[in-house]
Amino acid sequence: MELPSSCFQSCLDFCPECGSVLPRPGPQSSIRCPRCSFTLDTADFEGKTIRSTIEFNRLEPAGRGQDPAPHSQGPLVERRCPRCGHEGMSYRTRQMRSADEGQTVFYTCPQCRFQEKEDS
Questions:
Q1: How far is CA 115 from CA 5, 77, 106, in A?
Q2: What is the sign of the dihedral through the CA atoms of 72, 77, 79 and 85?
Q3: pLDDT digits over 55-102, tens only?
Q4: Cα 97–Cα 102–Cα 104 angle in degrees, nearest 5
């Protein structure tokens, strides 16, 4: 009786049966897939180099000449600016207090950049 061919064609980082990420080889003689229990001999990893990289989002420095949050972006709401009278302000929301309290809405006038906040 012949076994069915695997669904996945992969390198040794992934299980050839279910496609899950295999754990790193350790001192034991075999590696077992945590999902489907497929086993693989650690001898198959002989001479292989395993590397892991973590990529973080790059932080952009906020200088004096830069605006940390662009005011021209974001949704507009029908709200009159109290400073210049312009109709329509952009807004963004943020959870400033504990989770059981409402969020804070920050409004910004796209014309004069006046900002106000509202706790909801």
A1: 63, 14, 7
A2: positive
A3: 787 776 655 544 545 445 678 999 999 999 999 999 999 888 788 888
A4: 70
Six token digits for residue 109: 């006038």
Tokens of 108: 């910004």
H or E element in which residue 90 lies: strand 87-94
Of 49, 20, 46, 50, the C-alpha closest to 33 is 20
For residues 77 and 106, is the Cβ–Cβ distance under 8 A? no
Could you tell me the pTM of the whole model? 0.40
CA atoms within 13 Å, Cβ hemisphere of 77: 10
DSSP string, 42-81: GGGGTT--------PPPPPP--TTS-SS-TTSS-EEEEE-
Q: What is the DSSP letter of 1?
A: -
106: number of Cβ within 10 Å: 19
Q: Which three-class secondary structure state does DSSP give residue 31?
A: strand
Residue type, 90: S
